[in-house]
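Ops channel
N.P.: pipeline sanity check, posting one input/output pair.
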């Protein structure tokens, strides 16, 4: 069956591609003020981290952590950021070098998800359309309801996390590494099936050929987003156990090895004397709470779809996927373990649609369910983007200050308020920053408070001197917010002052 025979799905794929450029169209459309910082999603701080990695890769190939003033070794090679770094080194802006991955992410997601839905739900045009629509646009309504009903800040944040992690439609909004990683997951599973089942192979293609493709998909999934690699390996392990350790699974040695290789790399990084050890720390977030139940409540509709007899290889892996995701989520005690839910909408949507068909859900009820699980997310994302529009721009004077720091010959770190300049310093100047990304800056909350207190004039001179010494800063950068003029206050330590309209750069004595 050719995709062109199903115009509904063709329109759906076009809608997804169009949705991916909505933020750029809105942010750069009428009313845009200032200099675009390169982020077209909601997690601006994360995207400033990506720009920092791109700039560092362009200068050194291997990346380090520039969101701290302590010297960090260049140890990390990331294929997306390395290629973007090369593009930046050839003259592209760091923003453009990042955004070129948007069409790649969109095409990869549409290819991976469409091929998998074709394999699992292709006998009914309506069912395959519903499964693909849910897989691409599913958004747990709990986040929107918590926000619109004015729930507590903690509940709003937690339900938002649970809704955004499996929300594939948000991935092309600057979440490019995660998008490509998730897109590789169904491609890996489809290739694994062809390794194990000769009848599924194309004429003239061997098991070794498909093992190579599975290995490449697993390698990328793990390298770009290790949580997804762990899940793929867990699915394969579950399949081996399910098949009672059938010897045919030895044919998966190459895909397993390639998928595991980046995970071994990350493990070594987390045990080096570098910021990777800090970033791999146990965080203070919880695995279970009311927000988890609220966020995953719609997933209960998929449970009846787990039933089945005489399941083939792909059917088994389909059911193992959600189990593996939850196992990884609860097993991990460090890093951002919520990423285990990335891509989970694909298997759950297929299972949910099968359940609807089994219970012969009326067409009107099925359409209502689709609307309830898709429309709130679209509205919520647009409203959140509108609310955060200013976060995606620098004032022209702030951009001039960053350009000065980029061109200044004197080396050294920068102390600035976390937003907008502190988090942007590494990507736009190549310098270390005292406070920047929430996950890569040690003692982040305290440093944010210190920087804000300094630039608002709330510190005593003795406190300011202690902070300057601790920060190891060579430059201070004040943005265009309501900042105090620190010239007289910092006079004992000042070497030079450069004013760029509403932004100011203070250079300190050695």
């Amino acid at each position: 069956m050719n995709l062109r025979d199903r115009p509904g799905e063709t329109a759906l794929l076009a809608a997804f591609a169009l949705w991916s450029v909505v933020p750029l169209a809105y942010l750069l459309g009428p009313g845009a003020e200032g200099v675009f910082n390169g982020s077209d999603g909601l997690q601006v701080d994360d995207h400033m981290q990506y720009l920092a990695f791109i700039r560092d890769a362009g200068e050194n190939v291997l990346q380090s952590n520039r969101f701290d003033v302590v010297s960090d070794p260049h140890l990390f090679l990331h294929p997306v950021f390395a290629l973007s770094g090369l593009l930046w080194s050839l003259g592209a802006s760091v923003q453009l070098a990042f955004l070129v991955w948007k069409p790649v992410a969109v095409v990869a997601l549409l290819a991976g998800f469409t091929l998998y839905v074709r394999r699992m739900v292709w006998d009914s045009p309506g069912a395959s359309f519903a499964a693909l629509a849910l897989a691409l646009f599913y958004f747990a309504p709990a986040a929107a309801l918590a926000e619109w009903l004015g729930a507590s800040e903690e509940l709003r944040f937690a339900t938002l996390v649970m809704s955004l992690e499996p929300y594939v439609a948000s991935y092309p909004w600057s979440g490019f590494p995660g998008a490509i990683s998730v897109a590789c997951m169904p491609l890996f599973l489809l290739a694994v099936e062809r390794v194990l089942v000769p009848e599924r192979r194309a004429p003239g293609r061997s098991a070794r050929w498909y093992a190579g493709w599975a290995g490449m998909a697993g390698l990328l999934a793990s390298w770009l987003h290790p949580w997804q690699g762990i899940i793929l390996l867990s699915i394969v392990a579950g399949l081996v156990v399910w098949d009672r350790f059938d010897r045919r699974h030895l044919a998966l040695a190459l895909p397993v090895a390639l998928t595991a290789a980046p995970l071994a790399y990350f493990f070594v990084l987390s045990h080096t004397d570098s910021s990777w050890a800090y970033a791999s720390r146990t965080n203070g977030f919880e695995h279970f709470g009311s927000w988890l139940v609220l966020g995953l409540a719609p997933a209960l509709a998929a449970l009846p779809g787990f039933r089945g007899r005489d399941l083939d290889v792909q059917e088994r892996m389909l059911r193992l996927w959600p189990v593996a995701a939850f196992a990884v989520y609860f097993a991990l005690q460090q890093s951002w373990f919520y990423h285990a839910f990335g891509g989970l909408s694909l298997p759950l949507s297929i299972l949910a649609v099968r359940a609807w068909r089994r219970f012969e859900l009326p067409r009107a009820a099925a359409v209502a369910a689709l609307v309830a699980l898709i429309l709130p997310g679209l509205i919520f994302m647009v409203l959140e983007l509108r609310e955060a529009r200013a976060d995606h721009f620098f004032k022209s004077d702030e951009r001039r200050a960053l350009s000065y720091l980029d061109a200044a010959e004197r080396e050294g770190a920068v102390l600035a308020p976390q937003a907008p300049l502190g988090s942007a310093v590494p990507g736009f100047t190549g310098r270390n920053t005292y406070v920047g990304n929430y996950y890569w800056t040690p003692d982040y909350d305290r440093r944010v408070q210190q920087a804000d207190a300094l630039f608002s004039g709330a510190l005593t001179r003795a406190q300011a001197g202690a902070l300057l010494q601790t920060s190891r800063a060579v430059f201070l950068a004040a943005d265009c917010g309501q900042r105090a003029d620190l010239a007289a206050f910092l006079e004992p330590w000042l070497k030079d002052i450069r004013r760029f309209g509403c932004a100011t750069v203070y250079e300190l004595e050695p």
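N.P.: looks fine end to end. The radius of gyration is 25 Å.
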